[in-house]
Amino acid sequence: MIEINKNYNESNLETMAKMPDNFIDLTITSPPYDNLRNYNGYSFDFEKIAKELYRVTKQGGVVVWVVGDATIKGSETGTSFKQALFFKSIGFNLHDTMMYRKINYIPLTHNRYEQEFEYMFVLSKGKPKTFNPIMVECKTKGSKTNGRTFYQTNSQNIPTEGHKNDAVKEYKQKGNVWEIPTNAGTKGHPAQFPEQLANDHIISWSNEGDLVYDPFMGSGTTAKMSILNNRNWIGSEISSEYCDIIEERIKKAWEEKRKEKDLQAGTIFGNEM
Ligand SMILES: C[S@@+](CC[C@H](N)C(=O)[O-])C[C@H]1O[C@@H](n2cnc3c(N)ncnc32)[C@H](O)[C@@H]1O
User: Fold this and answer.
1) Number of the ligand 1 atom closest to the C-alpha atom of 236
2) Which of 107, 133, 148, 249 fits as disulfide partner to 220, beta carbons 3.0 to 4.6 Å?
3) CATH-assigned architecture of domain 6-133+175-272
4) How far is the centre of ligand 1, averaged over its atoms, from the C-alpha of 138 (Å)?
5) Ligand 1 centre from 31 Cα, in Å?
6) Domain residue ranges of the chain, discontinuous segments joined by +
7) Residue 21 above 90 pLDDT?
């Protein structure tokens, strides 16, 4: 049986070969995009990985695939779409096409508008078994709807009886375009995703004690945020140079977690942190 809460310095296909079927609750990952960056010369076999991900994902489990396209000879490659459609063809549901919008994108001044988003394809094996939606405040909370909301009108757009005095609720589910500043959690890796991105997917699609996998672990963002959110985790990273960064980051996350527990237990005081 594969050991959990561990990063494997090997190809993700080797790690997944050790996993039984229906093993992982949530995968969150971002593969190399169209060889846009050369990660120490390593490449990957997308179709084999996608099929293995389907096998190891539990029924109701989710894969969040964060990806963008390279522009080659003046055209975007469309690889992101092709990958999403391939996932569908092998049995995944394309549960949601989400976007990660980079608030502080880097201007490159091409002959097109600046690239400020990446796709976050949320794929599920059957109906997702877990969804803990993040809620946001409604801007017009408390104001009268006069029965004119999607749920309160009939097919002729006439307010349904009994809803004319309803008020806009305080909270609603967050939308599927997430604006996140591109803060690199640590130095030494060219393409980390923001900690908040990993954090928000982990809390949305898994529960405490679940098993989270990142087949392209990079600098270890998924492992760190899994530890901080009391999830179990497994990672694969082919480059030993990046594995050193992962180990360091995991060590710090466990220390942070230990301090948090000590603080809760009252064994240390806040000013000792
Ligand atoms: C886009 S980066 C992931 C970054 C990560 N999300 C983070 O926050 O740091 C992709 C990573 O996949 C690794 N990689 C490429 N092919 C791989 C393979 N077949 N198996 C495991 N890792 C691989 C690369 O070395 C690189 O570090």
Assistant:
1) 21
2) 249
3) 3-Layer(aba) Sandwich (3.40)
4) 38
5) 6
6) 6-133+175-272, 135-173
7) yes
